[in-house]
Records
---
Amino acid sequence: MNIIVCVKQVPDTTEVKLDPVTNTLIRDGIPSIMNPDDKAALELALQLKDDNGAKVTVITMGPPQATKVLREALGMGADEALLMTDRAFAGADTWATSKTIASLIKTLPYDMIVCGRQAIDGDTAQVGPQICEHLGIPQVSYCEDVKIENGLVVAKRQFEDRHHIIHMKTPCAITALSECTEPRYMSVSKVIDAFDKEIKTITFADLDLKPEEIGLKGSPTRVKKSMTKGMIAKEPPMDVPPAEAATVIAEYLHKNHII
Amino acid sequence: MEGYVTCYLGSKIHIILVYKLNYYKLLLDKGDCKVERNSHRLVEVMSILTKIKRKSKGLIVCMNFLLSDKHELLKQLFREFAVNEVQPLAEEIDEEERFPAETVEKLGKYGMMGIPFPKEVGGMGGDVLAYAMAIEEMARVCGSTGGILSAHTSLCVWPIYAFGNKAQKEKYLPKLCSAEWIGAFGLTEPNAGTDAAGQQTTAVLDGDEYVLNGSKIFITNAGYAQVFVVMAMTDKSKGTRGITAFIVEKGTPGFRVGRKEKKLGIKASSTCELIFEDCRIPKENMLGREGKGFGIAMQTLDGGRIGIASQALGIAQGAYDETLAYVKERKQFGRPIAAFQNTQFQLADMHTQIEAARLLVYKAAFYKDNGMPYSKEAAMAKLYASEVAMAVTTKAVQLHGGYGYTREYPVERMMRDAKITEIYEGTSEVQRMVISANILK
């Protein structure tokens, strides 16, 4: 079984601070990490490998520094890693990103694709599902768990008030939730091996895509402006004792049909 | 910017690298590994050098204070493991004086109990620097765990790897490196501490067996170890040349682990005495040759000092981490105590001392990794790092004030844990003897 895991290198948002003047992220000196949902995706793939035997290939698209997360993935137990990097890919929105990644996956043998639900730097949750649409394969998003039973992929999907158990034929895809899996640690010997493995670099020239389909040119969406949401109170603060405050708050919420 | 990086293959200088702003050229005298690239980034230069090193199996010496990507990633692994698996237990195992068997099993699972040994013998294929960083990160959150890892790897696995024959390596190393077996080392005796040559434990050859009699004290990991590297006198008339090293397994008739010490610090490490009463061990369990035990012990301790230096470094770093967080939170006179210049100066001193200790420790590891003499470097690292650990943890307690003296904050434990690093595997005074002997020889 060939499993492809898509991962993204993201700034560790728990460490991110905002510039009080410009309201933009201060990225300098912020450590980069493997996106938590993607790490969970890798863990699910590695569990499938442990239980059923599989070859796990990890893909990331990003600058050359993103090699770090690929080495980390190899250190956790992935078999192979591919880095998609090219200046032409820069500025891609989710559509162009998914199209670029899908065009690489088309050339690889795969039975299953595992992505994280969403990245903590963008929170779109779009790239995984879009890759599947480009490839025309079934997908289950928001997966907590996945197993192979009788040759079928059995995915457990988190829903608002219940779980769905969905059976799929391969090739198929899932997106994974970080809160449901505890990703394994790397191991010392696998980390050491990771640096003896070659990470193959894929550039625009290796893909069957037109220049207008990728990067900024291939992106139908643009971020016009980003701003920090200000918290502005409509009414001046009230100074009331706690017991009375509870009543005031409850009445307000009730009046506005919030509770 | 322009500079030279000199690379050695064996003892001869073979490569000279010149880098200038956006251009550098690598010249090899054989011309079989020529690299030309446009870049001004030192890290890229280093990555090329690493590739060449791999190809040429040569030694690269150059001044570089950056960790390789591999070591950065290993450090990340050690840190994640320490914070998630070791830190939560640190207070409890200290309080209960309990050996953290469950943590040791996990250390083995993730390959941390046999880092600096080749894969062919069951190790992880790592180096001494990686091993030093593993101890540092464990000790940063729990001094005991760092000590357990250090004693096992440096004092038991290493001498078997370095001096064992093929059969001994095959029998012991895979199980020791996976932590299925834990290792310990028996040199110290009630009357042979710093004067290690005064060994009173005897080993007498009787047929195909040696008969051991005597006792050892202060043996780290003793209560949980399956394999012990033990020194004994085979010929008293020869002095240090009459000392021989043996591998003794737990459960050998006539061998038992005695009283457990009640200690000031590293309370979770199992420190006990070993008792040999007509303990018969097969002749093939002799480690190295007869009469070579003292040399084996001294070389083992040379390496062990890098481990203890790393443990001291980790304890100091941990106390500093705690203090840095505390002084930002703790308010007196209406502002965080970090706002006072006294606190700031204390932090500056602690930070500087820790960084200096780290450079010495990593340098000693680098020397050992590259097959260079490292006895003096290891002694300097151990001497300095252990004294820094004591100084930094004492300051940490002081900056925590009354709270620092209570068990509510980990700096109290760290200060207790730090003291041993000035004592075991050679006291600070022994380190000064080793260093001065190297200077004056």
---
Amino acid sequence: MDGLTLLGTWIAALLTLCILSFLYKDNPFYKFAEYLFVGVSAGFWIAYNYHNLLLPNLIDPLKGAFVVLLLEGRLDFRWLTIIAGLLGVTMLFRFFPKAAWVSRYGIAFSVGLGAGLMFIVYLQANCIYQIWGTVKLSPVVITEGPGGQHFDWPTSVSNTLLIVGVVSALVYFYFSKEHKGVLGSTARLGIWFLMVSFGAAFGYTVMARISLLIGRMEFLIDGWLRPAVIAPIQGALASLGLL
Amino acid sequence: MKFVRWLADIDRRIIFLVIAVAVVIPLLLPLGMRVKVTPQTESIYEEVENLPPGSNVLVAFDYDPAAAPEVHPMALAFLRHCFTKKHKVIIMALWPQGAQMAVSALAEVGKEYDLEYGRDYVNLGYKPGGDIVIKSLGASLGEVFPKDMAGEPTAGLAILAKVRNLKDIDLVMDLSAGDPGIPAWVRVANALYQRKVAGGCTAVSAPQFFPYLQTGQLVGLLGGLKGAAEYESVLAYAGKASRRMDAQSIAHLVIIVFIIFANISYFILRRQREEKREGPRTGPAASP
């Protein structure tokens, strides 16, 4: 491990410990690491967006056009780039209360563009496909096997649960009629399905958080303690003839 | 009863400590627990296996270092599988740090294979815009990515010679940690251009993508660290995810035990409170 990597590893390890120290209680080390993270993130994103968005898409083309104008005396402006740039600039008017209304042009354009471009695909992918996915299910599934046709009960139960779950959960969100009688019972069944899905989501969330903890612990053990702490100590002891 | 009261009032720091111990011990002393492969992982494996060698696989690295413990092992396993099957891997990112994550993954996996940049794989880098970028890929890949990540022109690259747009891609694999990610690829690449899309994502977001599996909009899904470990398992190699799954499983067991004990103590104490409120049951209540 070279000197720079060693320094980076130590900084990463100490900052990790600073953040983890919050689990004991709020303290200045945690606050330092938190503020540092926020500051570094903000700086990183500004630099990243400037170099990856503004520079190649706006500043470089405009710079090139100015050079052509100065050297060759002809207009080589990409008008769409200028219009997009101006719409971007209008968004910055949010910072000036008296002229904040100007920002609506940029926002309206981006919202309109996004909605127009994505409306159909949203409807197709998240609505029509999903409705079709439920409608096409059959609660009774017969499959061909080596001994002829037989009732595929696991698929049938799964399909029935899916159909009942979708319908009852949708009924729960139907508010135009009081949830009484059959409607009330179906809505209550819908709550059960929703609770099971929330439980599954919570289980996955726990899994995700533990995975992140494992990632950090693995770094502390294999990325820091072993190569950056134990190995140099062993090396020093070996050079002194003590190991 | 004292024990029940102690359980109910247990200091959260004790729970943190127990969880930390449950995570660290399996990392130091691996147990080699088995991972059961689910159908949604198996189907991605089958999809890659059944593609003829030299197929074009687009891998979108839509995650950052924050999600790396979960998603990066998937990337390593999937790239290994693609390179073993001699598929052409086209890498891009809708997340700014995704392209850098791809560089890290290629550095790790690439040395195991005889690969040539521009012939066997290419890293096109990051492009902001989410859905719009994918939609534009449907028209022309070269126009969206005139240069690769290193700033070199993509026009002369052998790997892209026969790839004009998304329609020339045989499989899209999105490694996602949020938005833009799997939903964007499903919406545009699958719904609009009828491309096969597979996904790998953080465990937090996995449940919301299961409806896409049932409808066939996703050919498969790797959910969280377990999904990555499953893919390693089906490829028959023990990678980072498989090693981490020991710690994951033990930590889950500890959490389950905590939940059971917390519920037991809660119900016992609730019953006790109710009994106190109602008073001792000595006989039928007197009529007014």
